[in-house]
Amino acid sequence: MSAATKNAKMVDPTSDLGTDVDEADAPECATCGAKIVQSPTHRVVTWIEDDRVAHRHFCSDECKADHGARAHDSSTEDQNRSTP
Predict the structure, then answer these.
(1) Which residues lie closer than 8 Å to 14 by C-beta, 6 or more apart?
(2) If you compute the radius of gyration of the chain from its CA atoms, what whole number of angstroms results?
(3) Residue 45 has what pLDDT?
(4) I want to staple 26 with a disulfide (CB 3.0 to 4.6 A). Which of 11, 13, 20, 35 is the partner?
């Protein structure tokens, strides 16, 4: 068992979300970099990548949408570069 697993603290599933998160340990918004602490607009996107769970945190729906638009634009640019 890893040291991180041994030191992991279980979050009470009946507690308010994020009430036990210190700002130093809080996730950062993938778009604007803001620390996300006790935010009712906090969004998390998860997906499977290389047989592992990956995720991104967003401080608002607007940042989530902006990040998605930028990712789509980058993907389109990559496709355009590879097209003869």
Answers:
(1) none
(2) 17
(3) 93
(4) 35
| Look-up of token digits 């970099």 | 33
Where in the chain are the domains?
26-77
pLDDT in tens, the chain (84 residues): 555 555 666 555 555 555 667 888 899 999 999 999 888 899 999 999 999 999 999 999 999 999 987 765 655 444 444 444
